[in-house]
Amino acid sequence: MNKAYVSALLTIIMWSSLAVLTVTITHIPSLLSVGLVLIFASLPGLRYWRQWRLPKKVWLSAVIGMFGYHFLLFDAFSRSPAMSVNMIQYLWPLFIVLGTPFFTQSRLNIGHIVGAILGFTGVLLTLSQESITINAADIFGYSEAFIAALLWAFYTLSNRRYTNMPMSAVAGFCLISGILALSSYALTADIQAVIPSSSDLIVIGLLGLGPMGLSFYTWDYAIRHGDTRVIGALAYLAPLLSVVWMAIFIPEVVLKPVNLITLIMIIAGASLGQYIEKRKLAALLLVNTDNSSVKG
Predict the structure, then answer these.
(1) pLDDT per residue over 77-86, tens digit each?
(2) What is the pLDDT of residue 130?
(3) What is the spatial distance between Cα 152 and Cα 232, in angstroms, rounded to a whole number?
(4) How many angstroms separate the CA atoms of 145 and 139, rounded?
């Protein structure tokens, strides 16, 4: 398997553990926890700061994408039902697939479009097993989740364009985004400070090492060396694997047959576009071979 897709799958596995880890620190304000985690995630790359000589537009798009996604998503979770917010924010893999032609020279075939929709439908099947309520008071949070999904797709695809960007620059994006999160918390929080306990700091460290740390680096490698159309479809594995993790560590969560159906839909969706593209390429090679034979 291509290294980029291995890197993408590793990222997806790490992201899928996010819910299990964050459930233990929900008592910490989201901006505070996000800020601490992102700054922790930046530490391994700080020594390479001299490599961060990038155009201003790169910094601007990356920080808007990373900080904007996390800020809006965590705020949406605080305003609206979590299951509904999660459903909306998982539009970002679909946006990555559909947005690929606008950021790269790759085109979409019908397989990529159908595959992306198939994967998203599978996610809806899994998430719809829980009761979902919609009312006017939650619209703002849902809007934030929708914009957050757009921003993460924007972050992913805009980074794809900068092929010469060093991977260590991700540490800079994390650092600035973390500082912005902590600054936002300081401006909006109550006067009484929240001091994380030692166990909270351990969880924050684990988040910074994995689902909100190393994952940003492996994701960066994947999107700049792999096919974003395929990677976007594979990303739908994240919510499914998240359910699996929760079933393992949280007794109240039980795996259902629909989860297996979702897995099949996601794998089929991720493979469909590549299959059609290979068939087209094979047909084109066959035509060229026949034309060469006729000329000969």
Answers:
(1) 777 776 667 7
(2) 57
(3) 11
(4) 10
Q: What is the pLDDT of residue 179?
A: 95
Q: What burial class does residue 268 get, using C-beta atoms within 10 Å of its C-beta: 0-12 exposed, 13-18 middle, 19+ buried?
A: middle
Predicted local confidence at residue 178, as pLDDT: 94
Tokens for 265?
A: 């839909």
Q: Do 242 and 19 touch, CB atoms closer than 8 A?
A: yes
Can you give the pLDDT at residue 244? 79
CB 35 within 8 A of CB 175: no
Contact (CB, 8 A) for 99 and 232: no
For the chain, the farthest-separated pair of C-alpha atoms sits apart, in whole angstroms, at 84
The span from the first CA to the last CA of the chain, in angstroms, equals 38
Q: 125 Cβ partners below 8 Å, 6+ apart?
A: 258, 261, 262, 265
Residue 63: partners with Cβ closer than 8 Å, 6 or more residues away: 173, 176, 177, 180
Question: Which token pair is 100?
Answer: 């690929």
Buried b (16+ CB within 10 A) or exposed e, 2-19: eebbebbbbbbbbbbbbb
Find out whether 21 and 235 touch, Cβ atoms under 8 Å. no
Cα–Cα distance measured from residue 198 to residue 33, given in angstroms and rounded to the nearest whole number:
14
How many Å is the Cα radius of gyration of the chain?
Answer: 20
Higher per-residue confidence, 246 vs 200: 200
Average pLDDT, the chain: 80
- Residues with Cβ within 8 Å of 7's Cβ and at least 6 positions away in sequence, in order, are 218, 219, 221, 222, 225, 226
Is there a contact between 186 and 32 (Cβ–Cβ < 8 Å)?
no
Give the C-alpha separation, 20 to 250, whole Å: 8
CA distance 271 to 273: 6
Do 2 and 223 form a contact (C-beta atoms < 8 A)? no
Predicted pLDDT at 286: 61
The share of the chain scoring above pLDDT 90, in percent, equals 18
